[in-house]
Fold this sequence. Notes:
This protein is α+β, with helices and mostly antiparallel strands. It has a single domain, classed as 3-Layer(aba) Sandwich (Glutaredoxin). It is 50% helix and 12% strand. The chain contains 9 helices and 6 strands. It has a 6-stranded mixed β-sheet, with helices on both faces. Helix 4 crosses helix 7 and helix 4 crosses helix 8.
Amino acid sequence: MAKKIKTTPTRNNKGPSSKQLVLFTSIIVGLFVLLFIIGQATDKTGNSFQDAPAIINQPIEGDKDAKVSIVEFGDYKCPSCKAWGEQFYPKLKEAYMDSGKANFTYINVLFHGDESRLGAQAGEAVWSQNPEAFWPFHKALFQAQPAQDHDALWITTDKINEIAATVKPAIDLEKLNAAISSEAVQNEVSADEKLVQDYRVMQTPSIMINQVMVKDPFDYAAIVELIEEQLNE
């Protein structure tokens, strides 16, 4: 009688084991995560546009013909805009506006409704009356922003007159109040609204250096880097 021969199945070694597949997948996922982190760390700019915002008829500080334009899209009701103006604007003014290397423009954003609009109209009315009074008024209006309860009503006609009465050079309050509701001032605010749409502004403040939007407006190093790049082009 023939003996049955017991055979042992052989393992197919041609393909990778499940452990190898798990390890390989982990490495690939890790590489993608690393690349994402590096990209986030190095990409400090947001959208780039074909042209910088037009600064004709806009409040502008510094040499209007400077090579670099710094534009802030801001809202007088925005606490972050107040913080940005206190922390970064003075440093940029000293380093770039005062030296003629750059100019600075403020464009109104109306994310907070009627109060934002009234503040914007007041700023435009002051600018039309006396451009030299605009920046002191602009700063004083932000300083009047409440430290808490930012949504509370505070930008009113009475508050605007109270602030304007303290500004030097002097602002004619009668002319200011007549201009706030004028068609000319409302047209300027509407022009700002169009710029906000054209440049897809989604947050305040938003900062542009020439045609490039800064990804993080509170990344001062990135702002300076972009300015220097534009100056060296």
